[in-house]
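cache lookup: miss for this entity combination. No prior model stored, computing from scratch. Input as submitted by user K.M.:
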Amino acid sequence: MAQTAKHKKNGVVAKKLVGLADLVITAAQRSKDPTLAIPIRALSNVAFNERKGMIEMGHKKQARSFFNIGMAKKFMQTILVADALSELQRAALTTSLREIYYRTKHTIQDSHENTFDTQDESDPIIEDLEVSLAALREELHVRAENGGSIVGPLVLEDDGDRVDCAKLGKGGYSVPSIVEPGYVDIRRCTADFVLLVEKGTQWNRLSEDKFWRRYNCVLLTGNGQPPRGVRRLARRLHEDYRLPVYVLVDNDP
Amino acid sequence: MAKKAKPAPAPEPEKKPATRAAKPTQTVTAVEMGARQREISVSEFFTKNRHLLGFDNPRKALLTCVKEAVDNALDACEEAGLLPDVTVALEVVPTGGSTPQASQATRFRVTVTDNGPGIVRQHIPRIFAKLLYGSKFHRLRMSRGQQGIGISAAGMYGQLTTGKPVKIISRTGPKAAAHYFEVQIDTKKNEPLVHENKQIDWDQPRGTQVSIEVEGRYQKGRASVDEYLEQTSIANPHVRLVYKSPDGETREFPRTYHELPPTPREIKPHPYGIEFGMLLKMLQDTTSHSLSGFLSSDFCRVTPQLADEICKTAKVSPNVKPRGLKGHPAETLYQTIQATKIMAPPTNCLSPIGEKAILSGLYKQIKGEFYTAVSRPPAVYRGNPFVIEAGLAFGHRPEDQAKPPQPARPKAEGEHEEEDSELARVIRYANRVPLLYQQSACATFKAVLNTTWKNYGMSQSRGALPGGPMVIFVHMASVWVPFTSESKEAIADYDEIQKEITLALRECGRRLGLFLRRRERAASEFRRRHIFELYIEEVVEACNRLKGGKLPTEKLKAQLQKIASSRTGGLKTDEALGKTGAGPEGLPHSIIVTPEGIEGDVEVAAAVPSVAPPTAEAAQIEWRDEEQPVGTSSKRQGRASKRRSAPSAKRSGKRADPSAPRSGATSSGQTARAAGKTAKSGKASIARKKK
Ligand SMILES: Nc1ncnc2c1ncn2[C@@H]1O[C@H](COP(=O)(O)OP(=O)(O)OP(=O)(O)O)[C@@H](O)[C@H]1O
Ligand SMILES: [Mg+2]
C-alpha cells in the first residue's frame, strides 16, 4: 500500500517536472518571457504556525525569468536540473545532490562557460524546485548523504528488513536520507523520549554507556548539523509517537 | 603663416628704425644724422626680418616655400573654376659634390606645379620677384593669399640662401605658348631682374610651375611639409595632391570631393567693420557726389533709405559732398553708423568647406570609427562675416589585414603611435590653410580646452586637451581672418569667434557622446543577447528531453530567440548605428565605421577610394563579434545562426537520440563509471539500465 502511494506521488512529481517544459513552450508561443514563481526561502518568508507547531513557509514568491540577464542563468540551470530529476523519476532511481551536479554540469556550446561551476550552484536549484513544485526532496529522488545514527528501543522496517535498533551494538542504525513512510517505516517504539545529540562523539559516548537503556529513550545524532533524514525521523517520532524531543547541544552559534 | 605685416602699407616703413638707431651717440650731429637718412626698400626690410615671413629656421623655411606656392596654386585654380591638381616635388640639391640623404641635406629644390589658369607673361617677373605685388590685397573676399608677398618672399629667401633665381613655367591655355622665366629680385629697389625668358615646349596644356632652390631642412613629424600637405588634403578634399618627397617616395592625396567650393563673392566693407580713420579715407576716395550715395554704394547692407536715416540722425545733409565732411560732423556720422541697426554682411563672400567635404577629408586622411562635421551659420565680428566649421574623427578603425598597405599612410595614426599619452590632436585652419604653429595662442585651441569633453564621454584633465584617439578639426573662413601676429599662425581671440567655435565643438561633442553611448548600449545589448542565445540552446534541449524528445526544437528555439532579440533592444540594437544611409538618427553629417562597413554619410565615404568594400571585410571579422558588437545587422544574425545550427545538430545526435530514449539512470556507482567513460564531453551522463 505504501508502495502504491509512493508511485502515485511519483507520477505527480514527474508531471510537475514536465510542466516546467510546458511553461517554457507556452510562454514562447505567446512571445512571453518564461517565468517561474519560486517561493522565497528566506527568514522574511517563514512564520511559526502555533497551531501546527511548525515553522511554515509564507506565500511570498520570487519570479525567475529567462529573459532577465540577472536570472537567465539560474533559469537555464533550473530547467537543466528539472530535466535531470525527470530522468530519475522515469527510471525510478534515487541519486545524490552531488550526482545531480555532475549530471547537469557541462560546457555550454560555443562558449567557455559551464552550466554549473560548483555544487553550490546546483544544490539551491534543487531546493528551489522542491519548494516550487511542493515536492519533498525524497519525492524528487534526491537523497542527502547518510549522516546520522540512531539507537534505542525502536523497530524499523527498511526495504523489507526488520531493524531492531536495540540490537545494533554501540554503532546503531545509520539513518538514511529518505525516511518517508514506504522507505522507512516505524514498526514499534517504546521509548519515553528522543534525545537528539548534536555531536557525534557525544552520542558515541552515550551509546557506549547504554544511556538509552537506563532512561528508555531513543538516542539520535546528526553528526553536527543534522541531515534531513535525521530531522525527518525526529519529527516523525515526535508526531507519530508523541515523544518529546530533547536536544543536547553546546549552544555555540 | 609666412606673411608679414598685414596692413603692410607702401614701401615706407623706414623712418622709425633709422632715427631710433641714430639717436644715442653723443658725437653725432643732427647734420651728420640727416646725411645718414635713407629709404629702405621693403625687400631690404624683409631680408633682415625674414622671420616675419616664416623663414626663421631652415625647417620652417622649407615648409613656408611649399606653403606659399601651394596656397597660390589652389587660389588660382579655384578662382579660375578648375579642380586643382597640384604636384609638390622636393629634391635634395647636391652640395660639395655629393648628394646627402634627405634628413642630412641642407639644400632643396621646391617645385610646385598646378593646372591653374596660368599667368600672363608680363606679370610673371613682378609676381615672383617683387614684394607686395598681387591681385588679392585690394578686395574683400575669402582667399588663402592676401598680401602679395608670399611667393616673391619665398623666391627672395632662396636667392639669399642659395643665390639661385626662381624658375617659372607658365601657360595660359593649350593654344598659348609656355613661357620659361628665371627671375631674381633686386632687393634695393624691390624690382624684378629677369635672367632668362624664353618660350619652351611644355607637356601641360595650362598651368604654372614654380621652382625655387632654398636652404632648408627636411624632417617629418609636427609642422613638417608632410603634415602641411596632409592637413591641406583634409580641408580641401576637392584637391588632388601628388607629393614627391625628398626620400624619393611619391604619395598621392586623392581627390575625394568632386565639386569646387562655390566661388566666394567680393563684398564691400560693412559699416561696423571700419575704423574712424578708414571712414575719413573712404570719404576722400569715394566717387559718389552725395553723402547718402556714398553710404549706400561704398558699403554693403546700407540701402538708400537707411543712408538717409543715418544722415538724419547724424544731423548732416544727405546731399553734402562726402569730401567736405570732416572733423566733428564726421565723427558724429561715424558714431551714428555704429549705433544704427544694420543687417549683417552678406555671406556669399565666404566659401566654407561644408560638412560633407569635411567629412570626406577627415575620412580620407584619418583612420577612425566615428566622424562628424558641423558648419555654423555665418556670424560677424567687427563687421567681418565669418563661418566656423568643426569636425571630429574619433577612434581606431577596426583593422583589416586583408587590405594592401595604403599608399597614403594617414598621419593621425602615425602620430598616435609616437605619442603614448594619447591626447586629442587639434588641426586648425584659416581659409582652408592649415595653421601649424603657435597652437596655444590660437582661439580655436582655447575653445577646445574650454569645452567640457567629459560631458561627451571623453576624459579630460583640467586645462588640457581631451584624452583619447581623436582629431579635432576647426576651420575659420572669413574675408579677414584676424591673426594674432603677422606670421598668420594663430587666430585672435574675439568673443564672437570664440563663441562660434565653442558652439561648433559642442555640437560635435554632443554627437560623439551620442555615438559613444549608443555604441556602449548596443554592445551591452548584444552581449546580453549573446548570453540569452547560449542559454536558449540549453533550455530547448532540456525541454525536449523533458518532453520525451518529441519537441519541435527549431520552432521553440526560433520563438525564444525572437523574444531574446526583442528584449535586447530588438531592431534598435541592430540599427542603433543606423543603416538608413541618411545618417544614424540624431547624428547628421556623420560617418560610422564598423567592422561590417560604413554607416551614415555613406556616399561621402564611398567616394574615398582607399576603403575596401564592406563585404571583403565581413569574412575577416567573425572572431570580433564579441568585442565589436555594434550594429548587429541581420547579416550578422544570419551568420550567427548558421554557425550555430551545425554544431547543435551534431550535439543533439550525440546527446539526445530520440529513437533511444535515454531514460536510464543507475546507482551512483554505475553512474560514476559511466561518467568516467563520457568524461571527455565534460558531463557525466547516466547510463541506461535495462529493466
Ligand atoms: N600659380 C599661380 N597661378 C596664377 N596666378 C598666380 C599663381 N601664383 C601667384 N599668382 C598671382 O600672383 C599674385 C601674387 O602672389 P603672392 O603669393 O606673392 O601674393 P598673394 O597670394 O596675393 O598674397 P600672400 O602674400 O598672402 O600669399 C597672386 O595674387 C596671384 O594673382
Ligand atoms: Mg600667395
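stored under new cache key. Chain A has seven helices and 14 strands.
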